Amino acid sequence: MSENTFPVYTADAIVNFYRTEVLIGQEAKHFTKSDLTPAPKPEAVQTLYMRVLHLLYRFRPECHSMVPLLENIQYPVNHEGATAIMSVYMRMRQFLPMCLVYDFSLNDLLAPKKQRTLTVLSAIMNFLHFRKQRMDMILEKQAKFRADMDRLQAYNKGNLEAEKKIEILTTIPPEQQAEADELAAALSELQTTTVHEYQEVNAKNDCIAEWKTKIAEKSQKLAQMKVDISNLKEDVTKLKSQIVESPEELKSQMEKMRENVKNIKNSITETDERVVELQNMVQSVTHTEAEIQQMFSLLQDLESSMNNSKQRQETYQELTAQYEKKQKELKNLCMEEGQVKRAQGMKLDKESKQSIRRQMKREMKEQHVQDVLGQCNQIHQKREEMADKIQEISRETQQLKAKIQSLRDICSKETEKAQALYDTLSASMDDLHRRIEMHIVDLKQDTVKMSANF
């Protein structure tokens, strides 16, 4: 005992601790410093050890004075005084090695010394401090475990609801399956028709370029014809001044010249009309290109919406992975809880066997009432703690409900947006088909006219 691994407390600190933590009722009131110093009283020390054993192992002080019934002892009355001291000694010998005291003897009970009793009591005090800390930690872990279990149940419910919602959103109902198939077929047809129309537009652009080159050549020829006409007019004026012919020949020549001028004017007007028609065709082609670009932008919006749906599926997969991890953690926690319950069951079985073997006596009424009052206070404190925990859990559930409602609103908004996009796209595609058909009819008519003219 020269080198201790625990502090040796003063007599005042030991008295205050044992009066508040170990002793109860009248024993706590009557226990003073004079019971330990200068010469400790054996009765007070023995009652302290009995109360410590009762606190730790639920072994009541009355049980120390009981003689076992299985053994045939002659004159059991002579053993009443020694049995209590020997039972306390044997149980203290089993308990004190946990407090790092290995040399406990009968003299510490029958004729205790001051320094020896103070060291033993300080060792027990250190062990009780350690026990209290560990009990608080275990209670905190149990509370956290219960809160985690409640949260896990809430998360499981939320995951099940989310899975149901995802199934509802991803699966197409049988009533709308035919419409969805029709829409998919219509989209594929639209893509093929747009490709064909792009090819036709490119061919028409090539034709327009060829017509432009022809028009440029004709415009050059018209310019040359105008120059020739001006030259001919000058020659006519010169010839009029030089040649004097009959009026009949002059009239015939003038009529021929007028017919030539009319023919030239008619050709000029026809070329102008053709130029105007080609300009209208070019404008219609540009308009169709703008509509095609709008369709392309709508298709890009559809691709972005599909990418968003893929991202949501990925988030759903991540949530399922987290759910599986939490289930594994829950299984591990359940295994640990089962082990703890088994250990507690073993301890309870041992205590019950000890209580059955020994005939228990009742304590005094005052002590029993005080124990009941202490337990009632503890139960009241536990009830308050449980009420606080229930309030926290209700707050968390309300927050989860609000999050679920916000997710539902977002999903409904996105479905409405997708439906509106689909409606606008279908309407624009119908308009585009109509316009393309009208343009094709006009172009066919123009080609027939052009072929007839040429």
UniProtKB/TrEMBL annotation:
**What GO terms fall under cellular component here?**
Ndc80 complex; nucleus
Q: Does the keyword Membrane apply?
A: no
Q: Name one GO molecular function term.
A: protein-containing complex binding
Q: Where is the Kinetochore protein Nuf2 N-terminal domain?
A: 4-145
One Gene Ontology term of the biological-process aspect is: kinetochore organization
Entry superkingdom: Eukaryota
Keyword terms: Cell cycle, Cell division, Centromere, Chromosome, Coiled coil, Kinetochore, Mitosis, Nucleus
* Coiled-coil residues: 208-336, 376-410
Q: Would you identify the family this protein belongs to, as annotated?
A: Belongs to the NUF2 family.
Q: What is this protein called?
A: UF2 component of NDC80 kinetochore complex
Q: Which organism is it from?
A: Seriola lalandi dorsalis
